[in-house]
Each structure stands twice: as C-alpha cells, then as structure tokens.
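Q: Could you fold this chain for me?
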Amino acid sequence: MKFGKIIVLVVLAVIGFQVLLFALRKPDGGLGGELRGIAVPFYRGGAFLGKMTEKWIAELRDKKRLIEENERLREELGVLSSENALLRGELEKLRMEIEASQVEKEVGFEVIPAQVIGRDPYDWLGKAVIDRGREDGIEEDMIVVTYQGMIGKIEAVYDSYSVVRLLLSPFLAVGVLVQRTKDLGVAVGDGSGLCVIKYIYRASNLQKGDVVVTSGLGPGTPRGIVVGRILEVKEEEGGLFKEAILQPSCDFSILERVLVIKSAP
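A: Sure. Below is the predicted structure, expressed as structure tokens.
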C-alpha cells in the first residue's frame, strides 16, 4: 500500500514538472539549453515510471483474476466434496442392503439393515443408538445382530431412530442354550465387557470353548443366534446351579453396521 502511494506521488511530481516545462517553453516550441538538460532526466524518468505503472496495474489485474479463480475453484471443490459424501452414503447404504440380503439367505430371517449413530457416554457398554425407527418397521424387543452374532435388543423406538440395549449390559437378560450340552441358562452382562450365564444345573458338563446361542425363549428372540463362547465355569460348593463366564462373539468397540431381525420363519 505504501509502495502504491509512493508511485502516485512520483507520477504527480513528474506531471507537475512537465506542466512547468510546458509553461516555460519558448515561442518556437523549444527549450533553453539549461532547461533541456534538466528536463531530459525527468522525461526519461516519466517514461520509466509510466512503464512501471502499467506493469504494476497489470500485476494487480492478474492478482485479482487469480484470487477470483481460486475462489471459484474452492467453491467447486466444496460442491464436489459434498457430492462425494452423498455418493459414499449411497454406497454404504447399498452395501448394507447387500449384506442384509445375504444374511436373510443364510439364516432365513427377515432383517432391517441399520447404522450405529451413537453410544451413551455414561453407559458405553450398555446402550447404542441406530438410525432406524418406527417408520422403518422397528419394534421393541427385536434382536439386533452383526455377522458375528447377537449384540442386543431394541429397548426404545422413536420415529427415525431406536435405542439398543446391548448384551454387555447388566440390565439385559437373554435366554441362551449351550450348543454342545443343550443346557439352558440366562446370560446377563457383567458391566466389564463380559457376560455371566446363570441358572445352569450343577450336573451339567460345560467346558471352556463351548458355543452359546439364543434359546428362543423370550419375546422376539429366535433360536440359534450365536451369542459367544464360554471362558470359565464357576461352581460353588453346595449350590444348585453353576455359573459360566461368557465371551461375546461380537466386538463391541467397533459397532458400525448392524441388522435388526424383523421376523423369523
């Protein structure tokens, strides 16, 4: 900005000097020797400043044009980024629908694909929120699964989203069946990332590594959904029942795409 002011002042000075020379011209149009010696450098300086001024103005125009072009490209980039995000969303939706159709073919259940959109910060292991609700056919007590197995049940339903009570929660009890021994029990979250299977008869022959599935006893719960594997069997002396520590089959730290079982044959 200071440079521009200096140029303007110099140009005005040169113009003023040229006006003065014009006023001092002889009648024949020439200049005296002394005046000619003084005027020549100013003429040359004026020509030089004129060229510099033209160059400076051209650079300003180019700079303005570049700024406008940069702003236009930035707007186009924003539009392209938005379109790319929409395309990714559509692709993710299509992928979820394909996975849902594959699950339906494999297990025979009608399912609704959903995306986990939130976790309760005060109950991280106990609750999750999905982007499907009453408008999508979701109802309370429906089972929620991933390709690894069961993760929980629908606890509350709203128009466009639902709350899932997770398997790890102490407030969810699920009827289960030990696949190898056919023993029945109830799985309850222990609040630390594992589950406890209660009410297993003392005479049962449970072993570490036994696969546990849903028993089908309970509202909206189909039989045969994988729940997890037994890590440890506990037995109290004189008690009527055993307890087993259950490792859920699903990784609850990376819940993203889930499936809500709508109905079973």
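A (continued): The chain has two helices and twelve strands.
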